[in-house]
Amino acid sequence: MDFSFTTEEEKFRDELRQWLVDNLPDGWLEGNRVIPRDNEGQRRFFKDWQRKLFDGGWSGISWPKEYGGKGASLLEEVIYEQEMARVKAPPQINVIGVAMVGPTLLQIGTDEQKDKYVNKILNGEEIWCQGYSEPNSGSDLAALQTSAVKKGDKWIINGQKIWTSMAHLADKCFLLARTENTGKKHHGITAFLVDMHQEGVETKPIRSIDDQHIFNEVFLNDAVAYEADIVGEINEGWKVSLTLLSHERTGVARQIFELNQVFDELVELASTLKKNGRPLIENPIVRQDIGRLRAKSRGLLLNYYRNLTNSIRNGYPGPEGSMDKLGGSELGQEIYSYAMSLQGSVNTLWKEDAAVGEEWQYDYLRSKAFTIEGGTSEIQRNIVAERILGLPKDIKY
Amino acid sequence: MDFSFTTEEEKFRDELRQWLVDNLPDGWLEGNRVIPRDNEGQRRFFKDWQRKLFDGGWSGISWPKEYGGKGASLLEEVIYEQEMARVKAPPQINVIGVAMVGPTLLQIGTDEQKDKYVNKILNGEEIWCQGYSEPNSGSDLAALQTSAVKKGDKWIINGQKIWTSMAHLADKCFLLARTENTGKKHHGITAFLVDMHQEGVETKPIRSIDDQHIFNEVFLNDAVAYEADIVGEINEGWKVSLTLLSHERTGVARQIFELNQVFDELVELASTLKKNGRPLIENPIVRQDIGRLRAKSRGLLLNYYRNLTNSIRNGYPGPEGSMDKLGGSELGQEIYSYAMSLQGSVNTLWKEDAAVGEEWQYDYLRSKAFTIEGGTSEIQRNIVAERILGLPKDIKY
Amino acid sequence: MEFALNEEQQLFQRQTQQIIKSKGDLEIPRAYSEGKEEVLDDLWTGLAELGYMGITVSESYGGLGMGPLTLVPILEEMGRAVIPGPYIETVSFAAPLLEKYGSTEQKEKYLTELATGERKFSLALLEGNGEYAPSNINVRATEKGNEYVLSGEKILVAHADFVDTLIVPVRTGMSEQDISLLLVDRDSTTLQLEKQISMDETRKMVKVTFNDVAVPKSQLLGQENAGWELLEIGVRGLNAALCSNMVGGMERIVETATEYANTRVQFGQPIGRFQAVKHKIVEMKMNLETGRSLSYYAGWALENNTEDVVEAIAMARSLITEAFIKSANDNVQIHGGMGFTWEFDCHFFLKRAKTLENYLGSPEDYREEIVNALVSDKESVAVGR
Amino acid sequence: MEFALNEEQQLFQRQTQQIIKSKGDLEIPRAYSEGKEEVLDDLWTGLAELGYMGITVSESYGGLGMGPLTLVPILEEMGRAVIPGPYIETVSFAAPLLEKYGSTEQKEKYLTELATGERKFSLALLEGNGEYAPSNINVRATEKGNEYVLSGEKILVAHADFVDTLIVPVRTGMSEQDISLLLVDRDSTTLQLEKQISMDETRKMVKVTFNDVAVPKSQLLGQENAGWELLEIGVRGLNAALCSNMVGGMERIVETATEYANTRVQFGQPIGRFQAVKHKIVEMKMNLETGRSLSYYAGWALENNTEDVVEAIAMARSLITEAFIKSANDNVQIHGGMGFTWEFDCHFFLKRAKTLENYLGSPEDYREEIVNALVSDKESVAVGR
């Protein structure tokens, strides 16, 4: 066992650290992390950041160098996530494009697709979103009903997507639609690259419980795609979507790193806030809670490193990523909820009136989605049970 | 709302209290509660107690007076359970006979059956056990495979029962066997009254994790019963078994009362045992645990009273008994487990070497069966879900 | 031995249900939180007309003269719809305190107006970091002739802008417990009110600033420097009421989760068929019924002023507060993505539950209170054993 | 960056697995607890022949000179079969303490014999109410010429009847921490041993009474009155070892629960198809892997004597202790009635887990230790961040 990094890896880290110092928005490192709330401001902010990352060579770090990437190793990618988590860097708006669509096109896209899209993904010229979930297919993703019907050289797409992150800022959508109805739900799905700026595509914001707008409904009314916009084989979109997923190399790494950071902030909170005139951290009951959360946070982090080591040894990631996701999402909820508890009755104050720091209330509410998005905890448990432990599948109804 | 009892009810309580003072085994009230460990000693102890109860009129208190019962009301029965719990009275060895078989025979038995069995149940002359569970039918009780085949005027019974409490001390068995195999598992079961002292019946003890022998396997090899031993209709034994269950009027009352008592002992324990030279009860963390258990114990008790009130108002008990069972069994495990925790490292010592009181170790281990026997917690949850909340049944496979 | 609502209480329950339904049910908190504050006036008027404000006011002042148990079903129904407004503060806190400790003049004026619904009350208690402790009362009342002059700041005053009178614990002496309760009428004083953005937008939170506000000494409720004790007695009623209110919320959660689980189909099955969902709802139901039993008992203990009343309320408050949070959380999970939307109602319960977590004490504080009571008096009382 | 067993460690794991299987696997604790104590001799001899006793003994005394990480897979395997015997006390406690603090003569004698398996060790620490605290050390060692004369009583001495030497913390001075460690050889002293009936019959518990037992001063381990500090250092190794041992138990539980859930049929289905069972096993698995990660890390921290070693062990110990109990409980539940029988193996794990709960400190104590470490040194160490 060895927790050290090679000199080269540490050099990679140092470079990134320095770059972040030089390039993060003003005041960001000091904790003044403000992102505009309006669509236009947000778009500009995120696009600027995406562009900076690209210019610095820090967008698509795992991409081959010939496409503008850094060709980073898996461990370098992990270091990248560590450092980004450490400074709570702004999200990469084009994460879908950079982490999944781009690599997928590089792997199985046509030459035209590569020419047309890949560069614009990395430099952030075109923002991508992902059209998977539908109102009636959430956990049961393969039950999707959005249809694409061929008419001449066009595919006419009708249906509705939901939970499409950043759709309101996106230019393109990696969309799954049903092109054949054979009764086998995993067959007959096709992956399309769809232009978001066309008449047949309408985006409607979803206001979430934290009063934010990240998710959207996307309505497709005779939206159009062309033969050239199909990724992989017709009717084999399910496989393509799995290819896409396989490019998610670092899994929930960033979240896990962030959580360990948030834990430190939690300790800070408990050291600062007082009850009966004494810092909370001196309260034996609080100490128990914090000790428990500490062991869990570290355990989660160490689990991640163990799974990472296995991925490196085997050359591919195993289903253990589901355990990271399950553990991370639930611990995240626990930590944010506890941070609210520590704040006492003023925990009800939020936004500009927040008593301690408005991020706590936002993060608390945001955390409620952790165990739903990207596969619910119930689905993750089934994956662990069936794929890791070999327990029976739920009845196929 | 009203937590008081009528003068008559209080008189009933006083009588019973006095009777217990006069009749409990020597030293019992002072906490010297010893039950012989050997079969013969146990049989004698339990039979003596059963006889005393009968002579005092305290066996079968809900039975009609003409059959030697007390014709007690439901509330008197509850008072009975309260008082028995208060002194931790020895179990009534013939509880199956008195609480279930007797009342069932009185309700649907033939005249001969009543003549032959009922009196001997109450006076403890004949001890009854219940032959329900089988190795392959535990939670899925109706899947039982023990068969009874008619040969002349005899029914020949073959198969195996398991978890038969007190079978090693029993004279008779209320046994379910399959008399027809129609594919519908709830049909084709018949209820028999089987003599335990016959060649075809062999009883094998089950040693349980608490090093006790209460449960048994019962092997039936060409055991014999007669037409006259059938209760209710042939093939309608499932219905008969439900009739039997309906006579369990006070549900888990005794356990719930006992738990509230054990909670008091837990507080006593925490007040007596010390760590760092201070009574545990002064430790803020212990106080949290105890406060939590207190609220739960009281909640459980109050739930029971609420369900009881509904039973009295409606004239029959609802499925809420499943909630009492579920809550009581899990809280019981929690309390006994916590009592072990409080004892520190010496909690490992048991039997005559027990550091605090040997009942704690026995009860801790015994409590592991609470959530299994009489319908597992998983089954209780399904009952609550399906019968109280109206959620879908598990797929019928 | 009877442990259930009686017929009269059940009648109140049905009636409350009807009123709330007729006023829009869960649309009430939705409209209110979107700024349509007139729904609150409308509801208040409706309830007042039916005599709901005077339930705990004695008949001589125009009330019904009932005890806190009568409020239980009403408060549950309000909790079911996350109803905004100072009903609890007025009826479960101010009314009993005034009955018990008000001067004849105070009773005459305040209780009569309270009973008709003309006068609404709130509690202006918390300051600074929001801790519920005598040492945290720093709004000073300086004697000046026949008046107290108040200066300082109260926070998290529920619906201060909607009510007519605030009950304000103020510091009137040097030692920690030298606190007095004052009745501060908004129409005869100049208070600075400032809305505080609250996560639970159905309970409007207001910061109230006192800039040398003069209050006649006749507005003193009870004795000078005896305010903390009175407050604690008042808070008992408030807590019992909050418990019933939360129980109502839990009940609604169980219902909506069950309904959603019965109708939402995934993998060709209503999701309620999956034990992961099914048994989660069972857990909610178990907590609901245990919580309800404890809240009934707290109400009963309060009504009968039993020896174990403090413990009874502490048991209810500690268990229900946590169970409500858990249920509200699990309800979001069961609703999946939809539970995360503003459009669905799940978040009303989630926010109400979490923001009540530490209001007037944390679950830990109340557990400590249970044990305090237990150790000082080990005999079980009340529940016949 | 590599966080996994290396090849050598994996080799040890496979080898241990083979030995234990060949000796009867879970039949070993079963036979032992039924009084067939010879299985322990047999196993001990087998392990000694393969050099297992000297793994942590330096090469100059005939050992392999490895660190505690090498023991991790071995201890896990032993935990998988709830193996009885003083392996942990000998190899993870006595050996490193002797290496670090033994005199040359002590090392020469004890380490050499330990490495060959000739000499087995146990820790005679607890007294009275079993509390692990310096104030609870009351076995007195009175100086008499070149000897200490011991009187008093130790309890819960694991396998005292099977070992050759006891490491005994004794009181040698007046102030609380005036404790010294003595090496007490059974063959040169007269100790009274009395078996104590233990719920976990796979760890034989013995009461050891010292009736004026004379021990030469040369048997002092480390400095006089410095014993508590040494003991705490020794207990670190012991705790890390217990953690690995418990992780092995948890792993076996997950395996057997999975196997049972895959084969036991009710309602026409393997019960593992029901999410109530299925997800319970997933929870076990999650706890197992988190526990394992923490125990690996504890071993690594110990081997490298990192700054956070105390915290690392406390994290592992607190989480694993509780997770083991939970898993062992749930395992009984999943096995239904069969889990409640003596015949099935479930109870071995249940009893081992519960009786280790407070051994050398409770989970609460270890959590307190975590926070102590955290607050005194807020910087994250070791895990590269």
From TrEMBL, chains A, B:
<dbReference type="InterPro" id="IPR006091">
    <property type="entry name" value="Acyl-CoA_Oxase/DH_mid-dom"/>
</dbReference>
<dbReference type="InterPro" id="IPR037069">
    <property type="entry name" value="AcylCoA_DH/ox_N_sf"/>
</dbReference>
<keyword id="KW-0560">Oxidoreductase</keyword>
<dbReference type="Pfam" id="PF02770">
    <property type="entry name" value="Acyl-CoA_dh_M"/>
</dbReference>
<dbReference type="InterPro" id="IPR046373">
    <property type="entry name" value="Acyl-CoA_Oxase/DH_mid-dom_sf"/>
</dbReference>
<feature type="domain" description="Acyl-CoA oxidase/dehydrogenase middle">
    <location>
        <begin position="129"/>
        <end position="207"/>
    </location>
</feature>
<comment type="similarity">
    <text>Belongs to the acyl-CoA dehydrogenase family.</text>
</comment>
<keyword id="KW-0285">Flavoprotein</keyword>
<feature type="domain" description="Acyl-CoA dehydrogenase/oxidase C-terminal">
    <location>
        <begin position="235"/>
        <end position="389"/>
    </location>
</feature>
<protein>
    <submittedName>
        <fullName>Acyl-CoA dehydrogenase family protein</fullName>
    </submittedName>
</protein>
<feature type="domain" description="Acyl-CoA dehydrogenase/oxidase N-terminal">
    <location>
        <begin position="6"/>
        <end position="125"/>
    </location>
</feature>
<dbReference type="InterPro" id="IPR052161">
    <property type="entry name" value="Mycobact_Acyl-CoA_DH"/>
</dbReference>
<dbReference type="Pfam" id="PF02771">
    <property type="entry name" value="Acyl-CoA_dh_N"/>
</dbReference>
<dbReference type="InterPro" id="IPR013786">
    <property type="entry name" value="AcylCoA_DH/ox_N"/>
</dbReference>
<keyword id="KW-0274">FAD</keyword>
<dbReference type="InterPro" id="IPR036250">
    <property type="entry name" value="AcylCo_DH-like_C"/>
</dbReference>
<dbReference type="InterPro" id="IPR009075">
    <property type="entry name" value="AcylCo_DH/oxidase_C"/>
</dbReference>
<dbReference type="InterPro" id="IPR009100">
    <property type="entry name" value="AcylCoA_DH/oxidase_NM_dom_sf"/>
</dbReference>
<dbReference type="Pfam" id="PF00441">
    <property type="entry name" value="Acyl-CoA_dh_1"/>
</dbReference>
Automatic annotation (TrEMBL), chains C, D:
<dbReference type="Pfam" id="PF02771">
    <property type="entry name" value="Acyl-CoA_dh_N"/>
</dbReference>
<dbReference type="GO" id="GO:0016491">
    <property type="term" value="F:oxidoreductase activity"/>
</dbReference>
<dbReference type="InterPro" id="IPR036250">
    <property type="entry name" value="AcylCo_DH-like_C"/>
</dbReference>
<feature type="domain" description="Acyl-CoA dehydrogenase/oxidase C-terminal">
    <location>
        <begin position="227"/>
        <end position="372"/>
    </location>
</feature>
<dbReference type="Pfam" id="PF00441">
    <property type="entry name" value="Acyl-CoA_dh_1"/>
</dbReference>
<protein>
    <submittedName>
        <fullName>Acyl-CoA dehydrogenase family protein</fullName>
        <ecNumber>1.-.-.-</ecNumber>
    </submittedName>
</protein>
<comment type="similarity">
    <text>Belongs to the acyl-CoA dehydrogenase family.</text>
</comment>
<feature type="domain" description="Acyl-CoA dehydrogenase/oxidase N-terminal">
    <location>
        <begin position="6"/>
        <end position="118"/>
    </location>
</feature>
<dbReference type="InterPro" id="IPR037069">
    <property type="entry name" value="AcylCoA_DH/ox_N_sf"/>
</dbReference>
<dbReference type="InterPro" id="IPR009100">
    <property type="entry name" value="AcylCoA_DH/oxidase_NM_dom_sf"/>
</dbReference>
<keyword id="KW-0274">FAD</keyword>
<dbReference type="InterPro" id="IPR013786">
    <property type="entry name" value="AcylCoA_DH/ox_N"/>
</dbReference>
<keyword id="KW-0560">Oxidoreductase</keyword>
<keyword id="KW-0285">Flavoprotein</keyword>
<dbReference type="InterPro" id="IPR009075">
    <property type="entry name" value="AcylCo_DH/oxidase_C"/>
</dbReference>
<dbReference type="InterPro" id="IPR046373">
    <property type="entry name" value="Acyl-CoA_Oxase/DH_mid-dom_sf"/>
</dbReference>
